[in-house]
Amino acid sequence: MVAKADYDVLVEVTPTNVETAEPALGHIRGALGRHKHVVTSNKGPIALAYPELRALAEANGVLLRYEATVCGAIPLIHAMQEGLAGNSISRLYGVFNGTCNYILTRMAEDSLTYEQALAEARELGYAEADPTYDVEGIDAGVKLVILANTILDMHTTLDDVERTGITLLTPDALRLAEDLDCTIRLIGEIVPKAGVLRVSPRIVGKAHPLVVEGTLNAVTVEADLAGDLTFIGKGAGSTETASAVIGDLLYIHDRYVQGS
Ligand SMILES: NC(=O)c1ccc[n+]([C@@H]2O[C@H](COP(=O)([O-])OP(=O)(O)OC[C@H]3O[C@@H](n4cnc5c(N)ncnc54)[C@H](OP(=O)(O)O)[C@@H]3O)[C@@H](O)[C@H]2O)c1
């Protein structure tokens, strides 16, 4: 299909595999090799093979866009590549995984155990049957790798991410944080100059802009000219992800369709 069909842009939205990136990687290579633009929401190929895919896109005179791979509806990649293009980024940190954020929100709100909050997240469809990918910080780590490699000029893999998940957090830990007028959030952080990528539960003051509730995502970017900017929005969901995919399609349309 990808190799033979007549189309202008491949929209690659197959399930993410962060070990092999397949079948998406093969689809994207095939499309770029045929001079077809690609828009993807699939983290695997971007986290594992961005330099190769970018070079292939450039060699074939087409674009590869991937806004939906990080923070769903938040146009973070677009903002960093376009709006903040003249800035140097000293640090970027935030809440990249809505499932963990929901679990931590519920543990703090109603003194639920991790297991109880996870069960609730599963019932509501926020957590998979096997939640490892989210709760061990892998999903957040993959998103950091994408931002580091595609925007911050770093060369990283998931193995470079110092990673601690939320599975060992207890209601007591959240209560202690509460006593300090703080709470706990799973924070992903990149410090480009130090080569640091880390995901870990952190104590955060309740008034901090990153303390968002439920399944929201929030990211603060520290930029030399613009100062600190915090982006908050829905990190997942069908229409929210579609927002990012459509934005990428229109980006390509504006650059490649005659007369637009
Ligand atoms: N949903 C979100 O909120 C969200 C947010 C950001 C990024 N993403 C990413 O977007 C992608 C899609 O997510 P989703 O939630 O829509 O997943 P999904 O509901 O599992 O849908 C995946 C689709 O891919 C199709 N598919 C599976 N294997 C295929 C193959 N080998 N060739 C062609 N099609 C294949 C499936 O078809 P069948 O049903 O026929 O198997 C299904 O239509 C994933 O990579 C995900 O990580 C999702």
UniProtKB/TrEMBL annotation:
Catalytic EC class: oxidoreductase
One GO BP annotation of this record: methionine biosynthetic process
Lineage of source species: Archaea, Methanobacteriati, Methanobacteriota, Stenosarchaea group, Methanomicrobia
Domain Homoserine dehydrogenase catalytic: from-to ranges: 75-250
EC numbers, comma separated: 1.1.1.3
Classification via SUPFAM superfamilies: Glyceraldehyde-3-phosphate dehydrogenase-like, C-terminal domain, NAD(P)-binding Rossmann-fold domains
Domain of life, source organism: Archaea
Name this protein carries in UniProt: Homoserine dehydrogenase
InterPro entries: Asp/hSer_DH_NAD-bd, HDH_cat, HDH_CS, NAD(P)-bd_dom_sf
Native source organism of the sequence: Methanoculleus marisnigri
Record keywords, A-Z: Amino-acid biosynthesis, Methionine biosynthesis, Oxidoreductase, Threonine biosynthesis
Family: Belongs to the homoserine dehydrogenase family.
Listed pathway(s): Amino-acid biosynthesis; L-threonine biosynthesis; L-threonine from L-aspartate: step 3/5; Amino-acid biosynthesis; L-methionine biosynthesis via de novo pathway; L-homoserine from L-aspartate: step 3/3
Domain Aspartate/homoserine dehydrogenase NAD-binding, chain residue ranges per copy: 2-67
Keyword Amino-acid biosynthesis in record: yes
GO molecular function, a single term: homoserine dehydrogenase activity
